[in-house]
């Protein structure tokens, strides 16, 4: 068998952090399973977070009205993206699985990781108008968010002050990962490790190691397929799909909820 390739996009400033320990655990287990694991340590790389015209070598098409999406598409086609972007795109092209390891900042990824997404997932390379969501360019790859929170789990519940974590995850998992076609695995969430005893942190890491053993065989989260929407009518859900779910208690997904109750754990567990 050809070994699977794993890319870990890692964003934490400290090698002594829990995030670093989680990253190391993933590398250890996946390598032992025969995977070829590559890590992009964004802070160590001083990875540029801002999406600017400097990401393109040579002249741009329209300097007076610079459009990052269109200009980087042309640069990607011409091989004129800067070396740091091209190298990350190479890693991503080769990877069967991508793990994003990070501390949650302001309910999302740190700026340096968002910069990786903004700059690496360029138009043409990662998505096109025709190739997105379930028909996306990376539909044969898997991706997973693995992150720490500052708040305890109860605060990210449907009754908690932070709101439902499933809602928090929708823009990242649907709007970025699934948009590019990735099969999105259930997130690996480490709840408030800085607020629990060291023994509890050790238990968290053991749970992570156990999950990593079978990670590549996991089923992805459920998203509504692209062909359920009518492209000629503003990508609205097709009437027959709407009618099929009319009598059901829950909506299709967190975002496509049809005005119904959100399907429980839709962005946190596969098979629901």
TrEMBL record:
The protein's annotated catalytic reaction(s) are: 1-(beta-D-ribofuranosyl)-1,4-dihydronicotinamide + a quinone + H(+) = beta-nicotinamide D-riboside + a quinol
- For this protein, what is the EC number? 1.10.5.1
Q: Name one GO molecular function term.
A: NAD(P)H dehydrogenase (quinone) activity
Q: Which InterPro entries match?
A: Flavodoxin_fold, Flavoprotein-like_sf, NAD(P)H_dehydrogenase_qn
Full protein name = Ribosyldihydronicotinamide dehydrogenase [quinone]
Q: Which residues form the Flavodoxin-like fold domain?
A: 4-192
Q: Which cofactor does it need?
A: FAD; Zn(2+)
* Compartment list: Cytoplasm
Presence of keyword Flavoprotein: yes
Source domain of life: Eukaryota
Keywords in alphabetical order: Cytoplasm, FAD, Flavoprotein, Metal-binding, Oxidoreductase, Phosphoprotein, Zinc
Q: Which residue stretches, if any, does this entry annotate as coiled coil?
A: none
Q: Quaternary arrangement and interactors, per the entry?
A: Homodimer.
What residue ranges are annotated as transmembrane?
Answer: none
**Enzyme class, one word?**
oxidoreductase
- Keyword Oxidoreductase tagged: yes
What does this protein do, in the record's words?
Answer: The enzyme apparently serves as a quinone reductase in connection with conjugation reactions of hydroquinones involved in detoxification pathways as well as in biosynthetic processes such as the vitamin K-dependent gamma-carboxylation of glutamate residues in prothrombin synthesis.
């Amino acid at each position: 068998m050809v070994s699977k390739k794993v890319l870990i996009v890692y964003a934490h400033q400290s090698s002594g952090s829990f995030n670093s320990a989680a990253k190391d655990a993933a590398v250890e287990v996946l390598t032992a399973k025969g995977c070829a694991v590559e890590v992009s340590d964004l802070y160590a790389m001083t990875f540029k977070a801002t999406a600017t015209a400097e990401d393109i070598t040579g002249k741009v098409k329209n300097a007076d009205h610079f459009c990052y999406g269109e200009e980087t598409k042309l640069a990607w086609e011409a091989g004129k993206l800067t070396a740091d972007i091209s190298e990350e795109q190479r890693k991503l092209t080769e990877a069967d699985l991508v793990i994003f390891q990070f501390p949650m900042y302001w309910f999302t990824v740190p700026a340096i990781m968002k910069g990786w997404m903004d700059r690496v997932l360029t138009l043409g390379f990662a998505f096109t108008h025709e190739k997105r969501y379930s028909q996306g360019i990376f539909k044969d790859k898997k991706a997973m968010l693995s992150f720490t929170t500052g708040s305890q789990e109860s605060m990210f519940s449907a009754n908690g002050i932070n709101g439902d974590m499933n809602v928090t995850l929708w823009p990242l998992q649907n709007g970025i990962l699934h948009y590019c076609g990735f099969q999105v695995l259930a997130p690996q969430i480490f709840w408030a490790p800085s607020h629990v005893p060291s023994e509890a942190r050790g238990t968290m890491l053991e749970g992570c190691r156990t999950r990593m053993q079978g990670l590549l065989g996991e089923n992805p989260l459920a998203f509504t397929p692209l062909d359920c929407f009518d492209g000629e009518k503003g990508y609205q859900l097709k009437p027959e799909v709407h009618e099929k779910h009319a009598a059901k208690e829950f909506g299709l997904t967190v975002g496509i909820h049809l005005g119904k109750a959100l399907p429980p754990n839709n962005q946190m567990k596969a098979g629901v």
